[in-house]
Amino acid sequence: xxxxxxxxxxxxxxxxxxxxxxxxxxxxxxxxxxxxxxxxxxxxxxxxxxxxxxxxxxxxxxxxxxxxxxxxxxxxxxxxxxxxxxxxxxxxxxxxxxxxxxxxxxxxxxxxxxxxxxxxxxxxxxxxxxxxxxxxxxxxxxxxxxxxxxxxxxxxxxxxxxxxxxxxxxxxxxxxxxxxxxxxxxxxxxxxxxxxxxxxxxxxxxxxxxxxxxxxxxxxxxxxxxxxx
Amino acid sequence: xxxxxxxxxxxxxxxxxxxxxxxxxxxxxxxxxxxxxxxxxxxxxxxxxxxxxxxxxxxxxxxxxxxxxxxxxxxxxxxxxxxxxxxxxxxxxxxxxxxxxxxxxxxxxxxxxxxxxxxxxxxxxxxxxxxxxxxxxxxxxxxxxxxxxxxxxxxxxxxxxxxxxxxxxxxxxxxxxxxxxxxxxxxxxxxxxxxxxxxxxxxxxxxxxxxxxxxxxxxxxxxxxxxxxxxxxxxxxxxxxxxxxxxxxxxxxxxxxxxxxxxxxxxxxxxxxxxxxxxxxxxxxxxxxxxxxxxxxxxxxxxxxxxxxxxxxxxxxxxxxxxxxxxxxxxxxxxxxxxxxxxxxxxxxxxxxxxxxxxxxxxxxxxxxxxxxxxxxxxxxxxxxxxxxxxxxxxxxxxxxxxxxxxxxxxxxxxxxxxxxxxxxxxxxxxxxxxxxxxxxxxxxxxxxxxxxxxxxxxxxxxxxxxxxxxxxxxxxxxxxxxxxxxxxxxxxxxxxxxxxxxxxxxxxxxxxxxxxxxxxxxxxxxxxxxxxxxxxxxxxxxxxxxxxxxxxxxxxxxxxxxxxxxxxxxxxxxxxxxxxxxxxxxxxxxxxxxxxxxxxxxxxxxxxxxxxxxxxxxxxxxxxxxxxxxxxxxxxxxxxxxxxxxxxxxxxxxxxxxxxxxxxxxxxxxxxxxxxxxxxxxxxxxxxxxxxxxxxxxxxxxxxxxxxxxxxxxxxxxxxxxxxxxxxxxxxxxxxxxxxxxxxxxxxxxxxxxxxxxxxxx
Lengths: 229, 763
Description:
heterodimer; A: alpha+beta; 6-stranded mixed beta sheet; 6 helices; 6 strands; disordered N terminus; B: mainly beta; 30-stranded antiparallel beta sheet; two-stranded antiparallel ribbon; 5 helices
């Protein structure tokens, strides 16, 4: 005995499909999933185009150094910021821990200690080129030096790096200190980004170096000062 | 005439779209969905040990529009089979996720009693140890019903012990709620309730105690305005005492009333309506001890409901709405930093007490219509609109500032299912336009004397997001042993930002602040797979998935980072039941991610991954089962180098090797008692190949072991002991290499108890 198929209104599924397609067609004839056209990278002032390289940990640190050399020209700022994790793009965020002595000294000086974010870091990058009587001819450089402690590969794309940093304007030091950097490799793009910067002053100069050693202020001090608060 | 009709066409189109754009009824679908659509439902869920079965989980979750894991979690949390859970949700007129909340609330309702005499008493004690904390909770629930009189008490005492470094902190909380009621008629009851809460927090030698006692009278009623139109209305009122919840805010005392009610209409078969709402009004005063006292007025309301039309017809329509507002006042002490007179650099502080009102509100409406065609297909169109505002006080150095945030959302979706000529087809289209406007703080570089000065400014920024996606899936049983499935999806997310005020420009000499980076994210993927199942003992699936993911920053200053990933994944899965008590299955996957840096092709990368997971499930005896899983992943990655022939070749820069071996051994001598052992061993190795040879840079070895017992047994006729307790052990050793020389890091090891044991006793 053969089971008789259940009758159904002829053409109904096809009608539904046509209705669905018609509704989709209301969005217009252009491709509704086409992303916008991005502007080509800035080449204004005919200056430096920092070749970004975040594929390795050292590559990321070198990119930061080259962005400092670019003096906020060309793609310097985007290359610098690209080295720090961005929660709107990456799966991690970026945090900064100030040196506790600088934190106390700046608090005592009536400064507001901000909760650091990329917006502040962006302003800090530009601020670096405004201190110590800047001139348009000045050359800036950043030198990373191993801090005498081996880097730790935590596994699973996480590493801790111990570095001494020194920023120079021509031959004058304008920033000096030590950083414990946590770097993570993003899963989809395999970029090594700085997710955490724990800053330390150099014991020889302290949180508030005397005027003749003002160039040896740490990033903690300069970051707080850069907010203007 | 035609011209007049043409003018009406856009309005008619909009009305038509609005009528089509509605959230489907909450009622579950009939279980007539064809099996092919859910052919890959994982039956391992049925192995659950809680005596709860999840037959039809995926079909039910699909029709209720919640995720299967959420529905399963509700069933476990409320300890109810799925069919019972859905039946209760339908009969209570509530969502599936609110069944437990409604049950708890109705415990206090004398009108909900169906017996004239009841005496019940239930005691539960729960101990929950963990690595850095332990909690012990005791609860008592007592009910007494004698004719029209009811008495209900629920008391919970909980102690949390938290270990932080070398210190131990305690949190003790006592909550007691007692309600007595008298039922005058089946539709009217009155009563009173006392809620007592006390929390002691002892951290780092600092003890903080908050205590609150609420006394409220209650009046509960049920009413009927017309046949099939009625509901219930409840009033609560009395003094309130709200302790301070932070060091800078004040406490509140006063008198208040709360009302909640429901209006339902179930008169005809073509329309049903369900509306419910709550509201509260409070008058009192807020006090900051030894500083200030302010009179306060609070108002809160929440209305929500739905209208369902033609629920049983081939074309149903449902409209849901929600409206809520909060106008609560609070006293707060703020500190402002002020500079000394005459440009002095001295900084002084100014402490101010204020009464703050931070009103907030949300309004939303969503609607759906579902059409079905002879059981062969369904088409659901839905749309949603929402708007919410919030005023938040934030403390800055310049004093207290009130910031308003505003969020809007509008979207629609089309969801179709079709069964035709042996094919099962699903397709979805979604478009959503959320936007919000929020206060922001940012820095602007202002030219000063040939240099730049960083000026921090506060401004408002509006973000607009577009989420658009389309996906489709087709399944067909080609033969009785062979099934084919294909699916694809395309999505686009656009983020746009704009600064919407210009008051800050006075501080920056007209230099504008840069808004957030506009960006577009595009993703497309398709997957085809075939499953061959010659018998119930063996099945194998082969699949190929190809994806393209593009992240585009539109601004010239950021676009240098733009890139595109092309991901190719192929996998092969097989399952074979070797003997009645031994099943083996294996998943092999190869994954290749080609990253194309659009403006820096010299930085292009390739990340490869080869993984194999093998699992053996064995039932050794009636009381002994064992599972063994071996997982291996090899992941080389690198860039491209130009060879002498001028072509670019993949050059591995580093590689990772990860191995995991884990097992599970269960011995169940009786159904009430199970002994379990979970050993897991992990080994990881990283290699550097930039020099052309393999150089190990780090290795890690880790052993985790958990052993314990699970209980589910009656201790006496009225007492039951349930839960599990485990002893956990973990040990890890890392080795880093420098120039090939190993540097052994100190090994770490720890052990602790974990689990949860519950003793319940019922009179």
